[in-house]
Amino acid sequence: MSITQLNKEQKNSGLANFLADDQLTKTQITDLINLAINIKNHPADYSQALAGKSVAMIFEKPSLRTHVSFDMGISKLGGHALYLGQQNGKLGERERVSDYAKNLSCYADLIVARVFENSAIEGLAEHASVPVINALCDVYHPCQALADFVTLHECFVVGKGIDLIQVKLAYVGDGNNVSNSLMLMAAILGVDFTLVSPDGHAPENALLNKAKAFTEKSGSKLVLTSNIDELGQQDVIYTDTWVSMGDEDASKKAALIEKFAPYQVNHQLMKNSQASLVMHCQPAHLGEEITTELFDDKAMSVVFQQAENRMWAQNAVLVTLLTE
Question: In what order do the strands lie in the sheet with 236-239?
Fold first, then answer.
């Protein structure tokens, strides 16, 4: 695909920012998945896609995959990335979010933000005059979900000739920003999604209602349960850490591990559900939410394929937002 053709396609995407899964259409998500795979397979064709473009990357929270995948991905596209860490404190404390957004808009062509609160993402998008990408907040993790569906596309559509809407995806563990984004993106795409979480750890009702509305349109099924024995037949099982960043207090962690112990993802659970693939967004607490043996199982685990696809998925978003 030439850059001229790419320009024409991206003009019609209607994508101004990349903030939350529930702000995307099925067509936009599908286009991003296809573009990510095309960039991955033909990186040389996009080596100058962001030539002359600069991206400001705000990180309130520490990161490995998000930081590296954005930084190196932008470089592969011919752009320049600037990392802004925690030296300025939490957004909105040292200076208003609106002022932060307006200042960065004077210098950067796009803002990437990994923050604690979704309100910070919304504030940046409201006041910035350049596109904003949500690299993680307390409600959504759309970059991770997009990378995960790129991975599923590779494994099932490309690898087995199976349409994504035939894939059954289950998330087992703590309902969090990752499961929120997976649930919403699955509902929009028409993928059956099952979420198994202990009592008190399910998604908020507002997000559930959004997901249910999407399933009514797409025709997919959404199942929520706290009973691990109701997992049913699945193709893919996804899990994430039980202990969120900032909740590492020893007594709190011990209580969480005890509560979540029945929800560990292991080979027996894979066998019971007939799932062929396991996914994890990392970092993994091996021996807790997932066994070391399953995480390292080369036949079932696609965790590092997911990690690599973070870069290609994000590059698709960057190209879409910055190609004029």
Answer: 222-225, 192-196, 168-172, 236-239, 277-280
37 close to 154: Cβ distance less than 8 angstroms: yes
**DSSP SS3 for 277:** strand
Residues annotated as part of the active site: 114, 141, 144, 240, 281, 310
**Which alpha helices (H) appear in the chain, and where do they start and end?**
3-11, 26-41, 65-76, 97-107, 118-127, 142-152, 159-160, 177-189, 205-218, 250-260, 267-273, 292-295, 303-322
Angle at 259 between CA 253 and CA 262, to 5 degrees: 125
Q: What angle do CA 172, 166, 295 make, to 5 degrees?
A: 35
Q: Which residues make beta-bridge pairs with 290?
A: 265, 286
Domains and CATH numbers, the chain: 3-140 (3.40.50.1370), 142-306 (3.40.50.1370)
User: Do β-strands 132-136 and 168-172 pair in parallel, antiparallel, or remain unpaired?
Assistant: unpaired
What is the pLDDT, as a whole number, of residue 88? 60
Task: Kindly state the tokens that stand for 71.
Answer: 């930084």
In the three-class reduction of DSSP (H, G, I as helix; E, B as strand; rest coil), residue 196 is classed as strand
Per-residue pLDDT of 49-82, as tens digits, reads: 999 999 999 999 889 999 999 999 999 999 999 9
Question: What CA–CA distance (Å, rounded) separates 203 from 193?
Answer: 13
pLDDT tens string 230-275: 999 999 999 999 987 555 677 788 888 999 999 999 999 999 999 9
Q: State both tokens at 93.
A: 């404390």
pTM greater than 0.90 (yes/no): yes
| Residue 179 amino acid letter | S
Confidence of residue 324 (pLDDT cuts 50, 70, 90): low
In this structure, are residues 235 and 168 in contact, taking their beta carbons and an 8 Å threshold? yes
pLDDT of residue 5: 45
What pLDDT does 86 receive? 72
